Amino acid sequence: MQLDPEGEDDELDQEDEWQLYASADYASSEIGLDEKESEEDKPVETWFDGDDFDFEGSAVNWDSPPCPAPLGIAHVIKIGVCDHCLSRISGIRSRDIGSDSGAAIRDEAYSRDRELQSMIIQDYCPLCENLFDDIENIVDRVLETLSDTDFSTIQFGIHLPKDLLQEEDRIRTKYGAPGSYHLKGAIVEAIHERIREQDSEVDFVKEKPDVMVLVDGLTLRVDVDVRPIFLYGRYRKIERGIPQTRWPCRACRGRAVGCDSCEGTGLQYVDSVQDLIGEPIREALFAEDTSFHGMGREDIDVRCLGTGRPFVLEVKSPVKRKLPVEDLVEMVRSKAAGKVEVDELSWCTRKKINEVKQSRSEKTYSIRFKAEGIDDYEKAKESILSLSGQILDQETPKRVSHRRAAKTRRRKIISIENVYFEDDEVEITLRCEAGTYVKELVHSDEGRTKPSVQAVLGKECEVKWLDVLEIHAD
Ligand SMILES: [Zn+2]
Ligand SMILES: [Zn+2]
Question: Which domain holds residue 142?
Answer without folding.
Answer: 18-33+51-225
